[in-house]
Structure formats: structure tokens, C-alpha cells
Amino acid sequence: MADPIDEAILLQLSRNAGLTSAQVGDHVGLSPSAAHRRIKLLEESGHIRGYRAVLSRAAQGDPSTVFVQVTLDDQRRDTLLKFEQTVSRCPQIVECHLMSGESDYLLKVLVRTGDSYERVHREVLATLPGVRRLVTHFSIRAVVEPA
Fold first, then answer.
1. 45 contacts 39 by C-beta, under 8 angstroms
2. pLDDT at position 1 over 60
3. Which pick of 4, 92, 99, 136 has the fewest CB atoms within 10 Å?
4. How many other CB atoms are found less than 10 A from the CB of residue 41?
5. What pTM was estimated for this model as a whole?
6. Count of CB atoms situated within 10 Å of the CB of 119
């Protein structure tokens, strides 16, 4: 995508998805209707996949953030597929990345106040298919997070 106006629209919406077409248009120099048309085209082309609310930590139950490196038994397609399908159904796992390097996956896990990482480890993570090894890292605090 080489169009500077589309890039400016995407930048504005990435900063604040709640902007109206008129507000986006004001920022990028378009009329509200032209901005609306451009936004719809960006959605249809897949450049905008959706919109979401960014919740405060309090609204999420003041969770602890835990990063878990996962090493699987093997790299077979079936093993990876089963693991990924299962992970996508675990509400505590908010991100899952296939990695290069020592581990196969990196998970971002939110453990809400009142819950324990021990329970999540025992009942969720250790039961994931194909897992050979889990290495856990507890976040002390976030330095940079999505706005």
C-alpha cells in the first residue's frame, strides 16, 4: 500500500479506533464521506481487520502477566496444529507466537487476581498437546504497551 492518505488513516485509527469518519477526515485532509469510503476499502482489503477496546488492567481483573516459552516434543505439522488449536481456546492465553530459536512458541498469559499461576500451569499449560518443556517468566511491569 503506497498511498500516503491510506497510511495516514491507518495511523489515526491505530491510535484511536473510536474516531468517526469526520474526525479521521479532519486529520488526513478528507471530507467525512471520502474518509468513510477509504476506511471501508481498507476494511474490505483486510488492512483493517477489526476494532477493539483496550481495557484497563483493573477491568481485566488486575492480572499478572506471565510469558511462557514452550518446547514441543517434535515439529510435525500435526503436533503444531493440535497445539495451536488448543491454545486458541484457552482464555488465559492472550497471545501465542511461533518462534525461532530455543523454544517453539512464546505465550503471553494473564493470571487474574484470585487465580494462581500454579493452577493455570497445572490445569492449562501442562495439559497442552505435545508439550515437552515450559519455561516461565513473570513480568515485573510493562514498559511499553498498546494504548
1. no
2. no
3. 4
4. 13
5. 0.78
6. 11
Closest CA to 106 of 146, 67, 65: 67
Q: What phi and psi, each to the nearest 5 degrees, are found at residue 6?
A: -60, -40
Domain boundaries, the chain: 4-44, 64-138
Those residues with Cβ within 8 angstroms of residue 28's Cβ, 6 or more apart along the chain or in another chain: 5, 8, 9, 12, 35
CATH class as words, domain 4-44: mainly alpha
Give me the CATH topology for the region 64-138: Alpha-Beta Plaits (3.30.70)
Q: Are 74 and 132 in contact (CB under 8 A)?
A: no
For residue 52, the one-letter residue type is: R
142 or 97, which is more confident: 97
DSSP 67-89: EEEEEES---HHHHHHHHHHHTT
Contact 126, 85 (CB under 8 A): no
The lowest-confidence range among 28-32, 51-55, 88-92 is 51-55
The single-letter code of the amino acid at 10 is L
| Residue length of the chain | 147
